[in-house]
Write a structure and sequence with these properties.
The protein is an alpha/beta fold. The protein has helices at residues 2-53, 64-67, 72-81, 145-148, 153-163; strands at 57-59, 87-95, 106-111, 122-124, 129-136, 138-140, 168-172, 187-192, 203-205, 210-214. The strands form four sheets. Strands 2-5-3 form a three-stranded mixed sheet. A three-stranded mixed sheet has the order 7-10-8, covered by helices on one side. Strands 1-4 form a two-stranded antiparallel sheet. The radius of gyration is 28 Å and the shape is flat.
């Protein structure tokens, strides 16, 4: 009886803790929605004032050079908070092994065709703003699974490295006894990190881990 009572009490405490956690999450989400709405309201008010008093012009609260080197997320947020609404982000997929750039780093901000605008300059709130930023280099994967099976594993690995993939690994299965049916060094299967199904021509980042499994004798 005492055991049953303790278990029931533990279950009640667990359910109460779960209820409190659900309420906390709901309240946090509500605050996030409210903060987002408040930001959007302030942005609209800036554009309304600019339309009425400054012929649609907003005062730049930053220079374009201040944004270079920052993360694309923070730059977009700053642009939105300043009241601008006609912006787009354009990735430059050039980060490769040894690159000094980081993923999402802003390379340039161009406003109405100008890459250099000083803080305090008057700019229309609907000016076209293009933010270019860095991402990892990508390559098209050249083979379907069927095209890789039974190929020489070393040759396949060399071809992938020559394309530009940097994380190519080979894994011997050590599954052969005679080598009559399944040939030594023949590819059994290829795996790409984070990808369930390989498709010929699919675009993947240069440093995705590629593992080539191949048939080999147990003692080699």
């Amino acid at each position: 009886m005492a055991k049953h009572t303790a278990e029931a009490r533990a279950q009640e405490e667990k359910e109460e803790a779960e209820r409190i956690e659900r309420e906390r999450i709901a309240e946090e989400q509500r605050r996030i929605r409210q903060a987002k709405k408040e930001k959007e309201r302030k942005q609209r008010n800036k554009r309304i004032k600019a339309f009425i008093f400054n012929k649609k012009n907003l005062t730049m609260e930053f220079s374009t050079s201040d944004l270079v080197g920052e993360s694309v997320e923070s730059v977009v947020e700053e642009i939105k908070e300043a009241g601008f609404n006609n912006y787009k982000t354009v990735p430059i997929k050039d980060i490769y092994d040894g690159s000094s750039k980081y993923i999402g780093e802003v390379e340039q901000v161009v406003i109405n065709g100008q890459s250099w605008i000083e803080e305090g300059t008057m700019v229309p709130y609907d000016a076209e703003i293009i933010v270019t930023y860095h991402l990892k280099k990508e390559f098209a994967f050249p083979y379907s699974p069927r095209e890789m099976i039974n190929r020489d594993f070393d040759q396949l690995a060399s071809e992938l490295v020559n394309i530009g993939f940097t994380e190519v690994y080979t894994l011997p299965l050590k599954d052969l006894i005679t080598g009559w049916i399944k040939k030594e060094r023949a590819v059994q299967q290829v795996f790409i990190e984070g990808i369930n199904k390989i498709k010929k021509g699919m675009i993947i980042e240069y440093d995705k881990k590629i593992t080539i499994q191949y048939h080999s004798f147990k003692n080699k």
